[in-house]
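To whoever is on call:

I kicked off a structure prediction for a single chain this morning and the downstream step that reads the tokens threw a length-mismatch warning. I double-checked the sequence; it's 747 residues and nothing unusual in it as far as I can see. Pasting both halves so you can look.
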Amino acid sequence: MHIINKGSLYGKLDFNCVEKDTDFKEDSVREVIILPLIKQLGYLQENIIRSKTLQHPFVNIGSKKRKINLIPDYLFKVENNYAWVLDAKSPTEDVTNNEHVEQVYSYSIHPEIRTIYFAVCNGIKFALYRQDTKAPILLFSIAEIEHYWEQLKIYLSPNSFQLGKSISYEILPTKTKQTGFDYLTRPLLNEIPVKKQAAKRHFGVHGYFTKQTWNVVAEYIKNYTKPGDLVLDPFGGSGITAVEAMMNDRKAIHIDLNPLSVFIVNALTSPVNTSDLVDAFENIKNKYLKNEPNTEADIEIVLKKFKYPSGFTLPKGSDVAVIEDLFTKKQLAQLALLKNIIKKVKDGNIRQSLFLAFSSSLNKFNRTFHYTKTDGGGDSSAFRYYRYRIAPQPGILDLMNIYETKFKKILNAKKEIEPKINEQTINNITIKKDTATDLKWIQKESIDYIYTDPPYGKKIPYLDLSTMWNAWLDLDVSEEDFEQEAIEGGEHNKSKNDYNSLISDSIKEMYRVLKFDRWLSFVFAHKDPEFWHLIVETAEKCGFEYVGAVAQKNGQTSFKKRQNPFTVLSGQLIINFRKVKNPRSIMKAHLGMDISEIVMQTIEGIIAKNEGATLEQINDELIIKGLELGFLDLLKKEYSDLTPILLDKFDYNDKTEIFTIKKNKKFTTQIDIKLRIRYYLISYLRRMEREKTHPNFDDIILNIIPLLKNGVTPENQTILTVLEDIAEHIGNNSWKLKVNGQGKLFD
């Protein structure tokens, strides 16, 4: 480590005299104090912009609305992007004075500048601020600079910033995995093909409001950890992360506030003797069928004899007020009888497994079950509509048939996990009902990897929607649980600020418990850029370094998506951070264009790249570009909903759910010429195929050249090069697309 002391920077300067010297003014602070400091940080003359004149973006003065000029003392550039701002003051002026701080803050937020950090130095003290903090993140006396130098370098040296990546829409080559295993340099994964139904340990075992795809989670765990490592999911949900960690010889911690989540994972992973489990099921089945209440008299007897949930108030928006009204009297009686028989099983792990089948059966045995006649399936409304909605024509199914089907799925799951999750390995998993905002029972820097899928704002009120299951399973939910639940809205009317605060607290705790040089993969599926901005800003503030985001499909189109194609996203992004000693901040790129132009270029770019794009692909691309170029703060203010722009500016196909450039219209922004040619060629040749025509080269040129006159007009040879890549000759100089219209992708 290179040691800096004030002598090497300032010679024999007496800092006690600086404060008293009336001739040591602002210009002296600049030349004597600031200049050596910024040069030692590594800034060259070309990196330093002095006294740049900016026009105030909001305030004018006088009747003629004259612009007010802003003139920061120093702007520091890294690769032509502004990294931070510094203002000099005389030694008599306080670096924490609100007026001075607000002045430099106004420079940092200026549309031409947009830096994360800004600083004030008066020759005696140095104060460093972030845009999102009121108090200084670093405040020290220049006389003691050697004690703060390493911190200052971590924040402000040119190497402390991730450079804004240029906007490019060329199709890139696939990333290759590195050989050997180094935690720090693990590669980002490309999108992983989904194998949702291939694992018996998850598919059909128990419904939940959101579920990660097991093979995607497994690949992430294998990429970022080694066998024996400890994996944490503080928003554990249905338990995919914990189970896949164990299946791949890692240790796991599963945490969730919802007792239903904890019950599911406990019941699934508790080791059992499968032959004993089958015997217990057969015994229960026989007892139930012998006493099944079907007549009105039998139903009344059972309801008086056995306890069932009653009086539990359902969340607002429910079609009925209390839980017992979600069931017919016959359903209540049959469930109460089955529950009472299961409770008498002596072996605790077997009893839990049987209750898992019981809980899973509840999904299809209530008045909110919406039967899908086409495929014999269906869901309760809590999973389908995210509220308790009585079905117009409830599917009336036989309880024991449902229970037996669910039992068989759980039995298959137990058999599948038994080689990895058994009596010998069960100590390697910790399952705990707790809040992600306070992990005090987990030791600092003890976790090797975090993969988590947190709640998405007001999309799903988990505790509210779990009322039916938690009540039947006798699982308690306290007022404190509701207070700690990271959602917006819900029965307790949580505000957006409540949600933001709880998510921020959870990220801080994740940082604390994660080891250095280890990774956090944060799964998110939200349209509003504000939530993405919150996550990245909070993670950076904690000390995480953003590495990259990957778009990842989740394998199915939900009912909600089919109902609301423009408001519900069917995919997600996985944002990857790492915890390192010297994290680099995302520097907001000097974009040289306004936000509307960036948005349009991004949309047109992804449409050109994919020959048309879905809402998810467009949203993902904007979020990723916003993350990497640092314009999420602008995006969240002006483009929380892209739908009006997309429907106005582009063509939309209801069947394919794909947006394309309007017919016979040009790209309005500067997309790479070869990418534009490729897009127009494929669009034209597909149209010709539908018309059963094979155009010749002259026809092709005449049709697409008018659309390409946007910037540089390509030569015929350039068009021919792209054409040969995607199409093939037919007969005498006619062309048609290659199979599936796919050729070699451009690098």
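Update from on-call: the warning came from a stale cache, not from the record. Cleared it. Sanity check on the structure: The longest strand covers residues 514-524.
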